[in-house]
Design brief:
alpha/beta; 370 residues; disordered N terminus; two-stranded antiparallel sheet; 19 strands
Length: 370
């Protein structure tokens, strides 16, 4: 009798296990219709400008006359590259965001703090180990050594190579400080705000979330952390998430609360771990950091038909691999998006290294309208 009871019990467990496997195999997520890889910027939240900014972002003002003979002025992070070998290091605070989807919209959690990628690091730690913060990659473009440094610094050195190559300015840098990771924040996504869907650009699944609701959450976090002030860059990171705004899929954005010099800048990007996907690993973050560097307050207006502000990542996001190029560091291959130089917006091409229009020499024309 005991043997029969145990056998019956074991058979019952096998039936339940088989049913669970069948249920897992039958779980289906919806497809995204008309998915489009996108990045956005602004508009500046002037109404949220810090009342007493205290510290301010290190910034400089410059300008050029574009090809339509109109004057262009801009504000960028750092100091003027023509004024000497100055190194600017901007403090960075990473705020990881966990996205939780319930039974009605996917029953899945996307957590950048606990999820590990192929090299054994968590998503957040792999961001910190990447060439965006780790100065372990030598960037030699077209035979010209721009330095063994962080990617965004190498880009800006190439952007103003006419000035930086001079002996007096050779050690000019704009660096991102080693990030301090603040407490992870959790967003519970309702069915009206987003859901878990099949990744429209690669394998696996991703979560979606409304960008306006997302930004409202970011404003709350900015106020909640005493470490955040206009002199630092708060950087928000999600894992396998695309934001939506009337359609999918936004990989990142940057913005500011208030104008220069005392406005609070901030940036967001997702980290997608599907090979070949839009926003793969740190590609979206490289896009957003490059744009934050050259247009921190999203108000550097230019005379381009494809872009009204000086956004250096947008012109290349639609190219092969979404503009990304592979760089291996610490045994992991990161994807860094190429960024356009000032010449693309109508500045003298001679300003940049080799008079190129982009960091990877992958742009052949100035912007429409120039």
């Amino acid at each position: 009798m005991t043997r029969i009871a145990l056998a019956s019990l074991l058979a019952g467990f096998l039936v339940l296990a088989s049913a669970s496997v069948a249920f897992a195999q039958d779980t289906k997520y919806p497809d995204v219709l008309d998915a489009k890889p996108m990045f956005v910027a602004g508009p500046n939240h002037m109404e949220l400008a810090p009342v007493k900014p205290g510290a301010t972002l290190t910034q400089w003002n410059g300008g050029f006359t574009d090809l339509t003979k109109k004057p262009i002025t801009f504000t960028m992070v750092g100091t003027d590259p023509s004024k000497g070998s100055v190194t600017t290091t901007v403090p960075v605070y990473i705020i990881p965001i966990k996205m939780v989807y319930g039974k009605t919209n996917g029953n899945k959690t996307f957590d950048p703090v606990t999820t590990k990628v192929s090299n054994g690091l968590t998503v957040v730690n792999n961001v910190i180990a990447s060439p965006l913060f780790n100065p372990g990659v030598n960037f030699t473009q077209g035979g010209t050594n721009l330095g063994t440094t962080q990617y965004i610094d190498a880009f800006q050195r190439g952007n103003f190579w006419k000035s930086v190559k001079k002996k007096a300015n050779a050690n000019y840098h704009v660096l991102l400080g080693t990030p301090t990771v603040l407490a992870e924040q959790t967003i519970t996504v309702t069915s009206s705000q987003g859901s878990v869907v099949n990744n429209p650009f690669a394998s696996g699944v991703v979560g979606t979330y409304d960008i306006n609701d997302f930004d409202n959450n970011l404003q709350t976090y900015i106020k909640a952390f005493s470490q955040i002030n206009p002199g630092v860059l708060p950087l928000f990171i999600t894992y396998d998430i695309y934001l939506t705004s009337g359609g999918c899929c936004i990989g990142g954005y940057h913005n500011a609360n208030g104008a220069q010099p005392g406005g609070q800048t901030y940036s967001y990007a997702t980290y997608v771990d599907s090979v070949g996907a839009f926003s793969q690993d740190v590609s979206a973050l490289s896009h957003e950091l490059g744009e934050w560097l050259d247009d921190p307050f999203v108000d550097n207006n230019v005379n381009c038909n494809d872009n009204s502000i000086l956004e250096v990542g947008d012109p290349l996001e639609g190219t092969s691999n979404y503009g990304g190029y592979p760089y291996t560091l610490g045994g992991f291959t990161y994807n860094l998006q190429s960024l356009v130089f000032l010449g693309y917006f109508g500045a003298p091409k001679s300003t940049s290294v080799h008079s190129w229009l982009a960091f990877q020499d992958d742009e052949t024309h100035v912007c429409p309208g120039q």
